Amino acid sequence: MVFSAGLDMWRGRDIPEDTLPGISGITLSGESVDIAALSSDQAVLVYFWGSWCPVCNLVSPAVDILATRYPVVTVAMNSGSDDKMVRYLKHKGYEFEVLNDSSNSIAKAWSVQLTPTIMVFKDGELKHYTTGFTSLPGMWWRMLFA
Q1: What is the mean pLDDT of the chain?
Q2: Category of 72 on φ-ψ map: left (φ > 0), alpha (ψ -120 to 50) or beta
Q3: Which of 3, 90, 117, 132 has the fewest CB atoms found within 10 Å of its own CB?
């Protein structure tokens, strides 16, 4: 755990801490999402991923399970058009909310360079950050201690 926490700190060194950019937009299902507002009374997991990412193929099913009980917003990085993403999500059976970041503008604003990247927000503040494979229990613990 200590090694993993240290690795997360090193990987997250480029994330702006003083002036965090907002994460908001319209999901593929047409829902308006604003992470700061959504996290005002509960922890919210934000998942940066790509349909092309092999590790994301292992993490996404756990994110989908977590999304049945907790607020989850995902940001699909460089994964194609909205239509392509809708087909991909249907094929995989994922029901989590997706902001399609086809231009990578959200990821760039947050200096996210690795997928998968998981962030947990509470009261509009970034509480936890991790990259690479994360298990369902690992996500759950981060949500619990946000």
Answers
A1: 87
A2: beta
A3: 3
CB contact set of 123 (below 8 Å; sequence gap of 6+): 39, 40
pLDDT < 70: residue spans in the chain: 1-21
Predicted local confidence at residue 120, as pLDDT: 92
C-alpha of 75 from chain center: 6
Q: What is the DSSP letter of 102?
A: T
> So what's the pLDDT on residue 45?
96
- Reading the block at residue 72, the tokens are 């989850």
Phi first, then psi: give them for residue 107, nearest 5 degrees. -60, -40
Give the residue carrying structure tokens 């755990």: 1
The pair of structure tokens assigned to 80 is 């194609």
User: Concatenated DSSP letters for 10-58?
Assistant: HHTTTS-SSSPPP-EEE-TTS-EEEHHHHTTSS-EEEEEE-TT-TTHHH
